[in-house]
Specification:
Blueprint (H helix, E strand, L loop, with lengths): L1 H25 L7 H10 L9 E2 L4 H9 L6 H11 L2 H10 L4 H23 L4 E2 H33 L1
Parallel strand pairs: 1-2
Length: about 160
């Protein structure tokens, strides 16, 4: 039991670090100075300029996919990042929850993604895009799937050791 508690605490710490890094990149736009420049303008009396909202599903995905020539293209990197950035969320959070792990992980992931997209619109930091929401939500689901696969494998490996 003590080993499980240590592992859970390590996962808790990793999850906190992950969330901090996620918010730093997606909301505060680190390592760029975009958010810092906008905040500085606010303090100097500048107006908050709201971002834009892209409501048409798959518009950005199709446009970016059409512009990809190599895997080093920014368009490819953007699509891939949006598709994988929430996988750790879907994998780590269920470990920390007690009941309805996948449902709670999915719903909280959706709320987190909506919060991030809304903050990008509200504060004019980035683009609020339905396609980001779609890809990020798929990413949470992939993470949940990975969690379920790893849990299944762990259970079957431990059963075989006992036999």
């Amino acid at each position: 039991m003590k080993r499980n508690k240590i592992i859970k605490n390590i996962i808790r710490i990793l999850f906190i670090i992950y969330i901090a890094a996620l918010l730093s990149v997606l909301v505060f736009k680190l390592p760029t100075r975009l958010a810092a420049d906008i905040i500085q303008r606010w303090f100097q009396g500048g107006k908050i300029t709201h971002g834009t909202i892209q409501w048409v599903p798959f518009k950005t995905i199709v446009a970016y996919a059409g512009q990809v020539r190599t895997v080093t293209d920014w368009f490819f990197k953007n699509l891939c990042c949006n598709l994988v950035i929430f996988i750790p969320y879907g994998m780590l959070l269920p470990v920390l929850l007690k009941k309805r792990k996948i449902l709670k992980t999915f719903l909280s992931g959706v709320l987190l993604i909506l919060g991030i997209e809304w903050s990008q619109y509200l504060f004019g930091i980035g683009l609020c895009d339905i396609d980001d929401f779609i890809l990020n939500t798929i990413s949470v689901l992939i993470g949940c799937g990975c969690y379920k696969i790893l849990k299944f494998m762990r259970q079957h490996i431990s059963v075989r050791r006992k036999v």
